[in-house]
Amino acid sequence: MKKDYFTEKSKLYEKEAARTNNVKNIGESIVEKRMYDKTTTHIMDFGSGTGLLTEQIAPHVRKITTVDISPSMNEQLRAKANSLTCELSMLELDLTTAELDETFDGIISSMTIHHVEDVQALFHKFYRLLNNGGTIALADLDKEDGTFHTEDMGVFHFGFDQEEFATLAKNAGFKDVNIGIVSVAKKPYGDYPIFLLTGTKR
Questions:
Q1: How far apart, in whole angstroms, are the C-alpha atoms of residue 199 and residue 30?
Q2: Does any domain span residue 195?
Q3: Which residue, among 73, 133, 142, 91, has the nearest Cα to 113 in the 3D structure?
Q4: How many beta carbons lie within 10 A of that of residue 56, not counting itself?
Q5: Looking at the predicted structure, is the pLDDT value of residue 131 above 70?
C-alpha cells in the first residue's frame, strides 16, 4: 500500500474556495468541449478525490466510475454518493499498476497526472480503456517552478509543458488533440495556470 498523502488533507479538501472554484472552471470547460449522453455515457474519473469533478459531470452522464488510490479521499466521496445524479462505481486502486476489464466512453481527470511518474504509459492505458470514439478531458498544472505544493504530496512533475503533454497524448494514438488554459489556481505566493487537454480515440 502506498502512503496516503491525503489522510489529513481530505477532511479540509473542499473548504478551500480557490480549489473548488478551479474545479468548477474545469468542469464547465469539459461540459462545453465534450458531448456526453445522459442515457448511455459511462466515464472514468481518474484521481477522483472527494468527487468535486464527479459532482459536476454527474448530471450529464449515465454512470461514473471513480478511480483513486487514497482511502481517505474515497471516504469523503462515499459520504456524498447518494446525492449524485448518476450511477456511481468506486475503485480504490493504483491505475498505473492495476488492470481493468471494462472500457469507458470517456476519461476525465483534474489535477492528478502530476502525481504519476510515467505519464506516457498512463496515456497508453487510457487509450486501451476507451471505446472507439471515446474521449479524454484531462486538466493539470501548466509548467511551474515547484512552489505549487508546499509539502510532500507524492509529486513527480512540477506541472507540464503544454506542447509536450499534447505530444504524449498523440503518441498514444489520440486524435483531435487540443490543449489550453481553462483556470488559474491562485495562491498567496503566486498564480498557477491550469490547462485542459482533450482528445478522441478513433
A1: 11
A2: yes
A3: 142
A4: 18
A5: yes
Give the pLDDT band (50/70/90) at residue 186: confident
41: nearest Cα among 178, 125, 133, 126: 133
For 124, the enclosing helix (H) or strand (E) is helix 119-129
Instruction: Indicate whether 154 pLDDT > 90.
Output: no
Residue 45 sits in a domain of what CATH number?
A: 3.40.50.150
Inter-residue contact 185 to 175 (CB < 8 Å):
no
- Please choose, from the candidates 61, 31, 28, 29, the residue with its C-alpha nearest in 3D space to the C-alpha of residue 43: 61
Q: What is the pLDDT of residue 19?
A: 74
| 59-79 mean pLDDT | 94
The answer to whether the Cα torsion of 3, 9, 11, 14 is positive or negative is: negative
